[in-house]
Design goal:
189 residues, alpha+beta, Nucleoside Triphosphate Pyrophosphohydrolase, seven-stranded mixed β-sheet, 16% helix, elongated, binds zinc ion
């Protein structure tokens, strides 16, 4: 993805009034970019993508997917994943979201992919995907997943919710064909 492929921050993401002193926000050049800024107290609003983490988990060559219970993309499928909490490391998020959505406890065996994406309608995200291995629990959809299961790469349920997840699944298919397993980041040329 190139700069400009994602929409500029929509008005709804921009503070209208300063959250510190309630003055109406203006704009100021800061670090080479014009950013929302408070003319009274100097607060600058930095608009950043939201970080998320997810997993690639295989069981006998089938990949774990969940069906989304809520909007956006309700009823569509994705890899187990979710937004990082304030105090989490990405790996912690990946394990927590997996447990919440699938009932499975996992350990992470390597970094698989880092993808830029867009949560509709206009929230840019960065998703860190890990390869995972089951260590416990039992498969049961929960939290914001309506279904959870393992699916053959050539018989995936659809539609898949996110382009970033489709790219990861495409890479996984190539890895399985060429190597019989997902190659983690340090194994890639
Ligand atoms: Zn202010």
């Amino acid at each position: 993805m190139e700069p400009g492929d994602l929409p500029l921050p929509a008005d709804r993401h921009v503070f209208r009034y300063c959250p510190q002193c309630r003055t109406e926000m203006g704009r100021r050049l800061d670090g080479g970019s014009e950013r929302p800024a408070c003319p009274a107290c100097g607060l600058v609003q930095y608009l950043n993508p939201a970080p998320a983490a997810g997993i690639v988990l295989l069981r006998e060559g089938r990949v774990c997917l969940v069906k989304r219970r809520f909007e956006p993309k309700r009823g569509q499928w994705s890899l187990p994943s979710g937004f990082m909490e304030w105090d989490e490391a990405p790996a912690t998020t990946a394990r927590r979201e997996t447990l919440e959505e699938t009932g499975l406890e996992v350990e992470l065996t390597g970094l698989y992919a880092v993808e830029q994406g867009l949560l509709p309608p206009d929230t840019p995200v960065v998703v860190v995907f890990y390869v995972a291995r089951e260590t416990g629990g039992s498969l049961e959809a929960g939290d914001d997943a309506e279904e959870a299961g393992f699916y053959a790469l050539d018989e995936l349920p659809g539609p898949l919710a996110f382009a970033a997840h489709r790219r990861v699944l495409a890479r996984l298919g190539e890895d399985l064909r060429a190597h019989g397993r997902p190659l983690v980041a340090r194994e890639r040329p």
